[in-house]
Amino acid sequence: MTEEESLQAAINEPVVLQAYDAHWPGMFEAERERLLALFPHDFMAIEHIGSTAVPGLAAKPVIDILAGVASMEAARALVTPLCKQGYTTSAEFNATLADRQWLMRWADGRRTHHLHLVVHGGPVWAQRLRFRDALRADPALAWNYAALKTELAAKYPTDREAYTEAKAAFVRAVCEG
Questions:
Q1: Are 104 and 115 in contact, with CB atoms under 8 Å apart?
Q2: What is the pTM of this model?
Q3: Quick one: which of 58, 107, 169, 173 has the most CB atoms within 10 Å?
Q4: Do 102 and 151 contact (CB within 8 A), yes or no?
């Protein structure tokens, strides 16, 4: 598979959940350390978010990373250097985002990491950590989220955007509750 074919396969990868993998925290930590070594002065903090950050929770096997920066200008300035270090992104998609920049790493035709560049301490930063921490603290809530994700993965197996959008109300309810 060529690099372009691998990227296209990763972009179009179906929504498939797998059981929790105890290697996920180590995969996050390795990428966190790599990012801090490459860009030692750009990140104010880097956190593991998403379902792979919640012990015991089934997830798409993609490590979600929340990287806090000083401003959205700083986030946008990091996109090109990050793309030179193994990430890719959609300029069109990022142009629609006022509160973050999104990048992806992939290997062998599948996504491995999502990187979300946001303002450290800002609303997106706080919301993403609040949701992760709520799932970690409440096994019943995590179970309900897992059940919803399983249902949505079956409903939207080839539409990641619809899958993500369909989870949004649950996420909002947790963060506002």
A1: yes
A2: 0.94
A3: 58
A4: no
